[in-house]
Amino acid sequence: MNSISNFPYFQGTSFSDLFAQDITDAHYAFLLNYPATASWAAYPNTNHYFIQDGSSEATKTSFDKICQKEPWKNLAVLGNGLPGIVISPVQAVLRDYWREHFGFRDDNLKLFHCSKYLDELSQSNPLGSSDSSGFDQIITLFPFDHLKPEKHAVDPDVHYHLLSKVTLSELGVQCPAYKSYDLRQTHITDIPLPQEFPYLIKTSHGLSGEGTYIIRNASDLNYCLEELRKYLEIESVRMIVVSEFIKNAVQNHCVQFYVNKAGEVTLIGTTGQLVNAEGNYLGGLIHYDDTDMSKFFEMIAAIAHYAHQQGYFGVIGFDVLEDRDGGLYAIDANFRVNGSTPLCLQRHTLLGLNKAVAKYSTDYRMDGALDSVLVRLKPYLDRKDFLILSALERVKYGKIYTEIYGIVAGETLEDMQQIERDLQHKGLQILS
C-alpha cells in the first residue's frame, strides 16, 4: 500500500481508465443500474440483500431514475476498456453527443433485456471464452439477489456489509455517535431515543437518501416511525441506526478515491454536497485546483485499509461534515461509484480549458425534445460550458421536455454561476 503522504491523483478521464489496473485477469463488465423492489422489477431484491428504495409502491424509486437517468450518466464517461451493461436503450442523439464530447463508443454499450438480464449474466462463461456476450465478473453498485454470487466482482456479502450504515463505526474514522438496532430483536417502540432534538434515524441500506430521517421534532419522529412500520410490513428492512446530529457544520464534503486490489489508493476528487432542505441529494460543486485533500488523508488511509482487508476494490466515496472548529466527521461511506464521480472525472479535461470550477446537478430540465435542446445549447456545449451526462425525454399535457443530468463549468465560481444564469435565459430550468 502507498504511504499517506503520497496518494497520487487519478490521471485519466473515464471509469475504464480507473478500473484498468484491476480488470486484466478476467472478462469484466460494469452493471450500471441498482437493484429495485418495485413491482416493475423483474428481479426484486427482496430475499437477502435488502435495499430501502421506498416504503410503498407509490414512493418507490422509479424505473426512469434507476434504469435510465442514473446508469446513463455513468455510461457517458465509461471509456473504452470496461463494457457497460444497461437494460434500457439510449437515444441515438444522446450517444452521438457522448461520442463527440466524451469519446464514447457504441461497442462498449451492452444492452440486455430488463426481463432476463440477470439470468443471462449469471450463465457460466469460462475464463478465456471467446463468447463476447458473456462476462466472468460483474462490477456492481449494490449486490443483486438474482445474480450468482461468484459473478459479483466483489463478494456480495462483503459488499453488502460495507454498504451498511451500521458499518461506519468499524472504519477507523471519527463519526457521529450512534447505536444500531436489529428490528427482529427490538421492537421500534422499545428503541431508546435521544431526549433532545435533533438526531437522525437511518435504515441500513437506503437508496439515494431514502431511509434517512432527520428528527427535529415530534412530527418528524412520528413520520419516521410510520415509514419504518411500512418497511417492516413489506419485510425490506432489518437494521437501523440512531445517530447523533452534528451541529455547527459549515461544509459537507464527498471525498472520493479508488482502492485497487493491492490496497493502493488513487485520489479522484472532493466535491461539496448540494442538498435541499429535506437533505435530499441534488448534486455537487468542485474546485479542481483549489481543493486540499490532504486533510482527509488519514481518513482515506483508514477506510482504504479496512476495505482492502475485506476484499473490496473499486471507487469509494465518503461524506464528511466539517464543523466551524475544523472537526471532521464521516457521516456516510459509499463503497461504489458515487453520484458526483463523473464530475470528478472531468478534472483534466476542464482544467485544460482553464475551467477550474464545476457544478453537477440532477435537476436540470428544458422544454423540447433532446435534439432541439442540443441545437439551442450548441455554443455552450462546444465550449464545454455545459456537459450533458444524461438526458431523458418526457411528455406532460402533450408537451415534450427533456430532463438532464449535467455539468456547468467556468473559470471561477462567479463565472460558472454567470454561465448557469445565461443557460437559464436560453431556457434551461433548474428545478431545485
Distance from N terminus to C terminus (CA atoms, Å) equals 42 Å
**Largest sheet, strands/sense/barrel:** 9 strands, antiparallel
Count all strands and give the number. Answer: 17
* Total discrete domains: 3
Strand content: 25-35%
In N-to-C order, the SSE pattern is HEHEHEHEHEEEHEEEEHEEHHEHHEEHE
- Specify the structural class: alpha+beta
- Shape descriptor reads globular
| Uncertain runs | 126-132
Helix coverage percent: 10-25%
Q: Number of helix segments?
A: 12
The Cα radius of gyration reads 21 Å
The overall average pLDDT, rounded, is 95
Overview in brief:
By secondary structure, this protein is an alpha+beta fold.
What would you note in describing this structure?
With 432 residues, the protein is an alpha+beta fold. It folds into three domains: 4-155, no CATH class; 165-244, 2-Layer Sandwich (Dna Ligase, domain 1); 353-430, Alpha-Beta Plaits. It has twelve helices and 17 strands.
Structure keywords:
432 residues, alpha+beta, Dna Ligase, domain 1, Alpha-Beta Plaits, 3 domains, four-stranded parallel beta sheet, 12 helices, globular
Question: Any chance you could write out the topology, listing elements then pairs?
Answer:
Elements: H1 15-19, E1 28-31, H2 63-75, E2 84-86, H3 92-102, E3 109-111, H4 117-122, E4 137-139, H5 156-163, E5 178-182, E6 199-203, E7 212-215, H6 218-233, E8 239-244, E9 249-259, E10 265-275, E11 281-287, H7 297-310, E12 314-323, E13 328-334, H8 341-344, H9 347-351, E14 357-367, H10 370-376, H11 378-382, E15 386-396, E16 399-410, H12 413-425, E17 429-430
